[in-house]
Specification:
This protein is an alpha+beta fold. It has one domain (4-101): Trna Endonuclease, Chain: A, domain 1 (3-Layer(aba) Sandwich), CATH 3.40.1350. It has 2 helices and 5 strands, in the order E-E-E-H-H-E-E. The longest helix is centred in the middle third of the chain and has 15 residues, at 51-65. The two termini are 26 Å apart.
């Protein structure tokens, strides 16, 4: 999907939760939440990323960014994406919502 994945199921020792994928797309460091559904319904899978999940992802992103030298952290463009995976009888379908939400 164009990402260079640098981490899968990334966890912090100090925080609860994890980030499904972290990857670069061009100059943007993307924190990616993956939602999988066995069927499509009226509510897209990406809407399962509620305010609590977004807040957790923000905290995890800050923790991950602390691994970079401080002078570089401010220069990194960060984006939060949601990938919806639909397991259909006809095959797997993907939808990517880039910039699904911003920093709180």
């Amino acid at each position: 999907m164009g990402y260079i994945v640098v981490a899968r199921r990334w966890k912090s020792t100090k925080l609860r939760g994890d980030v499904d994928l972290i990857g670069w797309e061009g100059d943007s460091l993307c924190f990616i939440e993956v939602k999988t559904r066995t069927e499509r319904n009226a509510v897209p899978a990406m809407f399962a990323v509620d305010a609590d999940k977004q807040q957790m992802l923000h905290k995890m992103a800050r923790a991950y960014l602390r691994s970079f030298p401080e002078k570089h952290r401010r220069e990194i463009s960060v984006r939060f994406d949601v990938v919806s995976v639909y397991l259909q009888p006809s095959g797997t379908e993907f939808e990517v919502l880039k910039g699904a939400f911003g920093w709180a």
